[in-house]
Structures are given as C-alpha cells and as structure tokens.
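## retry 2 of 3
previous attempt timed out at serialization; input unchanged, resubmitting
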Amino acid sequence: MDKIPLPTGLAGRGARFWSAMTDTYTFRDDELELLIEVCRMLTFLADMEAATKGAPLIVKGSTGQAKVNPLIQEIRVQRLALGSLLRQLKVPDPMNATRQPSARTKHATRAAKGRWGNGQTG
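## retry succeeded, writing output
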C-alpha cells in the first residue's frame, strides 16, 4: 500500500503518531478521519503544554480570586477527549507509540498479525 501523506498542520507528537499508525495499519476512510483528529489533538496538546512552561499554575480570576490557570484546565479536558477518540479508533496509547515495545508486546503483535492479517482493518 502507498504511504498516506501527512495531513497539513500536524507536527511533533501528532506527526509522529500519524507516521507510526499509517506505517503499521491500514485504515478505512472513517477511521482515517478519526486518526486525523487524534493527531491534530496531539499537536494541539503539545502546543498547549509548551505554553504552560514557566506559566503560573495559579492565576487571578475576574474578581481577584486565586484559580487554576485556565490553560491547565483545558489541557485536562483535551486529554479526556483524546482518550475518547483513541477508544473509538482502538489504537495503542499515543504516549507509548514512539517507545520500543517490550518482548511480550512484540510477541502479542506477531500473534495478532498472524490471526488478523497484519492488524489491518477495512
């Protein structure tokens, strides 16, 4: 199968996850749309996390009260949404996508590929 080009706007974690997934699996069109959203979210999360570097954890609210930095709250919400998308797509945790798989994982992957034809869908 031909390599699927990287969608525009993806960088860093999102681009790495796209490459790891499209190099490993074949996706239906509807699954590709979900994968694109996952990768965009990973790129967006990385940008938000970078924006929090050096930012205060607690900020002043509209009436001067102390409150958690809204960006930190948004990161939490986006991570929950990412988990939901990944469950729909049924792919591995993106934080582990670039790590070397364990021997047990490699064995399980080989077994699954043997059973299900290279782990491909559609």
